[in-house]
Amino acid sequence: MENIIRKNIIGLLLCLMAFQLAGCSPKVITHVANERPPLPVDSVRIFLYGERLPSSAVVIGDVAVKDRGTTTKCNYDYVVQLGKEATARHGGNALQIMEHREPSFKSTCHQISGNMLYLTPAEMYSALTDTLSFMPADDTFGAQVVYATRRSNPKNVVKLSTGPSRITSKVYSPYGQVHKKMGLDVMLSYEHIGNRNFGFGFTTAYNRTTYGGMSDQTFFYVGPDFLISHMTTKNWRWEVGLGIGYTTYSEEGGNSGGGFGALTRLGVEYAISKHFALGADWNMMSRTFSAPKDFHLDKNERYGFDSMSLTAGMRFYF
Fold first, then answer.
1. Tens digits of residue pLDDT in 207-236
2. Burial (0-12, 13-18, 19+ Cβ within 10 Å), 219
């Protein structure tokens, strides 16, 4: 009985290890038209889209290295190495990368696709010494591949924005519930974005809200952010940010205090140049404070203010 249990456990562990190895590696997809004897991986040379290659080169087929969805090891050098190995296995000595997709919201992996080719020594020498480019319309190898590049995320971003805001939670006065709760947000943020589109930053926010005849209220927030950023092919950048920090409020001639603030932000911007962009953010802020001693709170109520704002302004990349 113990032997059976031991065998089952070992078999289960082997299955889990096999699944882990398969899930952590990118998926390599090949379509082979002209199989040739295998060649050493070191003999495979990389050619990028736009580099001239002789029309007499033999097309072995095409190869794509894609994300499985559970892939963890997928930096650019590694996926190119997988493409070279597939090319050599089918008898090619040249890999022409036709498409390179950088990490994005959909996938945190580098992904490539291209043509597996065989060149004679003379053709290889000619190709390596010829630096001229050919136009995509030449369609030298009959490859119907659309080349799409994404502009990389800026490493550092400074954002300055302003716009209207509204308190969305209930606000009470000695005369009843207050309905006029419009204000103005001014926000200044710094963001640092890493290689996998994840980043961190710091945000300060100032808000002044008018209650229509009552004392105006001023809020201040400061705290760190965690964010995810994505740059598209057409110079648009999207991001989602979450932050927690310290917040204060003060009323004209009234109460004041400090507490906990939580910020959620969804932003979009358009890069006009390498270092400048215009953008807008949809912000949701939740502020929680200690209630005054004489203030009565019903069950499940908290003393605080929730707000939403739409801010727009300038972004500086560096």
1. 999 887 667 899 999 999 999 998 875 788
2. buried
The three-class DSSP label of residue 78 is helix
**In this structure, what token pair is assigned to residue 30?**
């090949």
Between 8-17, 61-70, 96-105, 138-147, the lowest mean confidence (pLDDT) is in: 138-147
Place of tokens 């080719």: 117
Please state, in angstroms and rounded to a whole number, the distance separating the CA atoms of residues 88 and 117: 10
Between CA 269 and CA 313 the distance in angstroms is 9
Vertex 173: Cα angle to 170 and 176 (nearest 5) = 80
Confidence of residue 131 (pLDDT cuts 50, 70, 90): very low
Full-model pTM: 0.55
- CB-based contact 280:269 (threshold 8 Å): yes
One-letter amino acid of 243: G
End-to-end CA distance of the chain: 66
Quick one: tokens of 44? Answer: 């495979």
| Contacts (Cβ under 8 Å, ≥6 apart) of 79 | 26, 65, 109, 110, 111, 112
